[in-house]
Amino acid sequence: MSEFMGDNDRLRLEEPTPDVRAVITDIEGTTSDIAFVHEVLFPYARDYLPPFVRAHAQEPTVAALIEDVRTEADEPDADLDRVITILEKWMDEDRKATPLKTLQGLVWEKGYIDGDFTGHVYDDAVATLQAWADDRRALYVYSSGSVAAQKLLFTYSDHGDLSDLFSGYFDTRIGGKKKMRSYKAIAAELGELPASLLFLSDVGEELDAAANAGLQTCWVARDENTQEKARMSERHPVVASFEDIELI
Ligand SMILES: CSCCC(=O)C(=O)COP(=O)(O)O
Ligand SMILES: [Mg+2]
Question: From ligand 1's centre to the CA of 29, what distance in Å?
Fold first, then answer.
């Protein structure tokens, strides 16, 4: 059985549930500040992704991603200028398109290596993830950011290299985060019963999809507005910080 303790309340899941064998966490808004993603990473990609794509368009990896953009946009004849315009539009819309997320990861690599920024991870997330890892819980990441981008954020984090905490990473190549089948696919890939997995996120639709797939869920709602919205849904335990989550 899993027990979650919120700020002022103590919530015990009503149904007996299996012990949590693995925790799967979202990044943006959950382990890491939304502002870091939207005010540091996204503007950096907005500036450097177009020249990056132009400079590397002939290289096999980038050429394949350009082709993926044409396919996803249903514009098979789009020239390079048009592909870049599509990518800029997707960035402005925060579209979770796999070729865009992959390209962003390639662009951010230089920013992390050059020391332009470090990956933000909340203190409570670091301390709790470390405690769970010490307790031999398997930890995984599931984010719309590419696996390469996820590894960069945790390798070049504010707290140093945290990448060893995680046993694996999932991105949109396994499916969108609001789709139930993505969580079933993750459980199958991990060889675990969905009910023995706990998914942490700040987005209700993602948690609903995970719960529909049979996973245990917890809504990490870091500000009061989100906490109010989260509590109103009444579907998921709600915490303000990783330190409020107790795995049993
Ligand atoms: C992990 S890289 C930065 C995050 C990102 O690109 C993104 O789209 C955020 O998605 P999430 O699923 O972590 O909310
Ligand atoms: Mg999120």
Answer: 9
